[in-house]
UniProtKB/TrEMBL annotation:
It comes from Sphingorhabdus contaminans. The gene is tsaB. SUPFAM superfamilies: Actin-like ATPase domain. InterPro entries: ATPase_NBD, Gcp-like_dom, T6A_TsaB. It holds the Pfam family TsaD. This is tRNA (Adenosine(37)-N6)-threonylcarbamoyltransferase complex dimerization subunit type 1 TsaB.
């Protein structure tokens, strides 16, 4: 079974095409912005223009815009190809990537850039299962939440007594989550939207 994986939830943009567990083709770039302009060309460069039997997409938490871009593309392709679309968690993939590099780790804390000076935080076990709720926290509160010796993501807590594994989610590593239950293809923003509807007096 072929699987197309789309990841646009962070400043990285990546696409991967798998046949079973075998990676056929991929693209990965840290671009910051411009995911909408890069994503479809990335997919079109895949063999058979990325045509697959199923699609997986990073549903967050992460960049509001990036998550929406990835989901929109995944759903459009799923509709056109008449194939199922599934989601996977941003922090869960980072945790799985970290455990693959540190196989003796029993716990990993993941910190990814959120917005307004906050970071998405989650603790995961060796199987990349969340040990609690994913939260959005300020940098100064990281110490009161993070206790693992191994920390991963794009924020260094600056603690010499702990190991920091700098990484971003990468579609090429999706196979590390292949046995996890798929998520719904719906956005997981991790915090309330910046804009709130105005209250109208009746």
């Amino acid at each position: 079974m072929r699987t197309l994986v789309i990841d646009t939830a962070t400043k990285a943009c990546s696409v991967a095409l798998f046949d079973g567990d075998n990676l056929i083709a991929s693209r990965f770039e840290v671009i910051g912005r411009g995911h909408a302009e890069r994503l479809l060309p990335f997919i079109s460069q895949m063999p058979d223009k990325g045509r697959a039997d199923q699609i997986y997409v990073n549903v967050g938490p992460g960049s509001f815009t990036g998550i929406r871009i990835g989901l929109a593309a995944a759903k459009a392709l799923g509709l056109a190809w008449r194939v199922p679309v599934h989601g996977y968690g941003c922090l869960a993939l980072v945790a799985a990537m970290t455990v693959s590099e540190y196989p003796d780790a029993t716990k990993v804390d993941v910190l990814m850039t959120g917005g307004h000076g906050e970071y998405f935080f989650g603790s995961f076990d060796q199987a990349s299962e969340a040990l609690g709720e994913i939260k959005s926290i300020k940098a100064e509160h990281v110490g009161s939440h993070s206790t693992a010796k191994l920390i991963a993501g794009d924020f260094d807590v600056g603690d010499a007594g702990r190991i920091w594994f700098e990484t971003l989610p990468d579609a090429r590593k999706w196979h590390l989550l292949r046995h996890a239950a798929p998520l719904k293809p719906s956005p997981v923003y991790g915090r309330p939207p910046d804009a709130k509807p105005a209250m109208v007096a009746i």
